[in-house]
Amino acid sequence: MSDSKQIKKKRNELESHIELALKAARKYGADAAEISVAEDKGLSVTVRNGEIETLENHFDKGLAITVFNKQCKGSSSTSDFSEKAIRQAVKTATDIASFTAQDEFSGLAEYDELAWDYPDLNLYYPWGVSAEEATEIAIQCETAALKGDKRIVNSEGASISSFESFRAYGNSHGFIGSYPASSHSLSCAVIGKENDAMQRDYWYTAARDNNLLEDAKRVGKKAAKRTVARLNAKKLSTSKLPILFSPEMASGLIGHFVVAVSGSSLYRKSSFLLDSLGEKIFPDWMHIYEQPHIVSGLGSAPFDSEGVKTRSRNIVSHGVIDSYILNSYAARKLKLTTTGNAGGVHNLCVETGNLNFNAMLKLMDKGLLVTELMGQGINMVTGDYSRGAAGFWVENGKIQYPVEEITIAGNLKDMFSNIVAIGNDIDTRLTTRTGSILVEEMMIAGE
């Protein structure tokens, strides 16, 4: 994707703010400094029962500066991009640094780790949708949902959003990098009723490129179908059974692993996976890796929030933890090297098998398909896991009926080691790319 004149103009503008701030930091005596600049704009519309409920035009911008002086750190920010305001923000950060304690681990990322040469990942697809057009799309989506089944009795609304952003980062090593990005989404949530039972569910689509969004009517119909499928849900008796996490829920399960092997959890000793490098946590066939340079990927980034180059790498190979997830500060604390994850992971991928969703149900044979989780009953220090859940009872490899008001419980370490299979039904709307995950056995607390 070649830069347009508009992109080049914005890039020059934001990078000039960084150069000004770096120059001011040197003037005020800082040993080192880093600056992040961002501009975001977009449109979001929500309709409910055919009427506009909210319509918002967004425009936000901000410059954040962090200075280091004798390993004392100070930070400040401003939404005013005038020369005077930027200089004042730098001075404020420098003044704050004079009152903070020294931290031997603070400072910029290492020079050699920076993304001096980074790829264009085609992350920017401006839509230019008008408020009128967005409203019409949202109404089409909601109408399709309301007409999707006679048991759909009300709507919680359909929402459409379109955002564009421009990010720039620079530091006193001389690095300055910037890139534009976009994100677009459409969602719908409706309420269904049968007899005295009522349920709600939703569906959504998201992409960098609006042309890759699902059709509005299809989104609405999926929301309706998912909602009526949950009607007349039953409770289960307390037992130990296999659990199949849908792709959306499986992404969260892998997210707990990410938190456990992230630098801040490790150096604070608040993780059940302390000192786990080289330890076998998952089954032999399990492979988890990061692919930050997927073209147009929702989780793609050419460099992290410290300017460190992002790169494809293994995190888990053959069930063994190969790498933690670190920014430069955590890396220094742990006497390791940054992994380019300041700001989080970028397109975390879980290698899948060759089983589709129906084949995963057949493999489970009898157990619980979890499609919704509630509550935050997770102890990251011990790995104990207990959450409210809803989903579907599965028997003879087929969905039999919806279930609700149950709790599933276990220990994350046991859950990880007892993963039986991972489906190929990957949810590409998420930055953690995984299919459904089948866990051999968990406690189900019901009646």
Key features of this structure:
single chain, 447 residues, alpha+beta, PmbA/TldD fold, 2 domains, six-stranded antiparallel sheet, five-stranded mixed β-barrel, 9 helices
How does the helix and strand content classify structurally? alpha+beta
Number of helical runs?
9
CATH architecture of the largest domain: 2-Layer Sandwich
What integer is the average pLDDT? 96
Strand and helix order: HEEEHHEEEHEHHEEEHEHEEEHEEE
In terms of per-residue confidence, which ranges show pLDDT below 50 for 5 or more consecutive residues?
A: none
- Determine the CATH topology of the largest domain: PmbA/TldD fold
- Terminal CA distance reads 57 Å
Q: What does the main sheet amount to?
A: 6 strands, antiparallel
Please state the oligomeric state of the protein chains shown.
Answer: single chain
Which percent range fits the helix content? 10-25%
Number of domains: 2
Question: Radius of gyration from the CA trace?
Answer: 24 Å
Strand order of the largest sheet: 3-2-1-4-5-6
CATH level-four homologous superfamily name of the largest domain: PmbA/TldD superfamily
Task: Tell me the β content.
Answer: 35-45%
- CATH class type of the largest domain: Alpha Beta
Outline type: globular
Number of strands: 17
